[in-house]
Amino acid sequence: MTLLDPRLTPARPDLAAAHLRGVVEAARYVEGTPWRVVRERAGVTRTPDSTAPLTTEALFGEAVTLYEATEEGWGWVQLDADGYVGWMALEALAPPGAPATHKVAALRTPVFPGPSIKLPPTALLSFGARLAVTGLRDRFLMTADGGFVFAEHLVPLDRVEADPVAVAARFLGAAYLWGGRSSLGLDCSGLVQAALTACGIACPRDSDMQEAALGHDIGFAGDLSSLRRGDLVFWPGHVGLVEDAGTLLHATAHYMSVVREPLGPALARIAAGGTPVRSVKRL
């Protein structure tokens, strides 16, 4: 049978997606059912355990395919956006409902129960979260879930940004969070994915996937003047965005934050830790 990436393949020895019949071996095959995320952010883990390490997150309104639901309240899912597979708490999911029409373009935005900023918000949604908008009242867009969001914080789903680096820079100061994808905390590849996706560029989840899938290798040999804005610098297990020939933007555990760092010293610091640059990819 074909060896497939388990991060992107809904298959286990006991259970696999029906479309993988004949591709992978499993005790049984099931058709998945569509659901959507109804929490501000929903963690995805490799095992159905609330103490397990986070592998990624899904944001409010994102679609998932559910392949198994356990009595203990866990769902084995695949995220529609990037194909990532793992376990998610069932309480974070609901039936699909109205199709999303808009996405959050602000770093984060409150959802109010009525068209007033003085009401206590019911949720705080991150950049990239998806909503179904049903109308406009004063300065607020109404959602199919009964919420009200400041209209200027949302854009239509098909709106694309022009500059991934400018998008990434909005996250400066956000906390570093292993597996995170939201403005409340994200990791290096989560930052790159958020920035490229906002610009209409399909982007895988993890840095090794991004290195394999994105752009072309420019054959970087240490000359900083050869770098351009938007180049992706890859180390084993890490990725950052070149802001200009002297500056790197990245989410890093070294500072536990999204930072703007002088590129030369950053390269030297990371290399001194035993991980020299592996490639630089240009989109």
Automatic annotation (TrEMBL):
Matching PROSITE patterns: NLPC_P60
A family per Pfam: SH3_16
Domain of life: Bacteria
Keyword field contains Protease: yes
Keyword terms of this UniProt record: Hydrolase, Protease, Thiol protease
NlpC/P60 domain segment(s): 158-283
Stored InterPro entries: NLP_P60_dom, Papain-like_cys_pep_sf, PG_Endopeptidase_C40, SH3_16
Recorded family membership: Belongs to the peptidase C40 family.
Name of protein: C40 family peptidase
Organism: Ancylobacter oerskovii
Lineage, uppermost ranks: Bacteria, Pseudomonadati, Pseudomonadota, Alphaproteobacteria, Hyphomicrobiales
